[in-house]
Design a protein that fits this description.
The protein has 104 residues and is mainly α. It has helices at 9-28, 35-50, 68-76, 94-98.
Length: 104
């Protein structure tokens, strides 16, 4: 019997991509939906993955990975910058926000 362990980064990435492929296949075969509705379905379902609401994967944080040069550039031109390490989906369910009329 093998030792129980945490899944590797590669295993989790593979599971995530398998879920995305499954979603694409599902909506590819939805011929009764408009192209826009199929695209919305794919986007919604991928956001559900990040929110931990689909395909058996846990919620996943989407983390900004800007670098210090970017921060300085935006400061120099007087614009707001992206903060490295910021998690954009800590306090919200992206698939629910996406469902709002304002996005599509």
């Amino acid at each position: 019997m093998s030792k129980v362990r945490a899944k590797t980064e590669e295993e989790v990435r593979s599971e995530f991509l398998d879920c995305v492929c499954s979603i694409v296949k599902t909506y590819t075969n939805e011929s009764d939906l408009t192209v826009k509705d199929r695209c919305r379905g794919v986007a919604f379902s991928i956001l559900c993955i990040f929110d931990g609401q689909e395909q058996g994967l846990p919620a996943m944080g989407i983390v900004l990975q800007s670098d210090e040069d970017d921060k300085e550039y935006y400061r120099d031109i007087g614009e707001n910058w992206y903060e490295a390490g910021q998690v954009i989906n800590n306090s919200s369910m992206l698939h629910e926000e996406f469902s709002g009329v304002k996005y599509v």
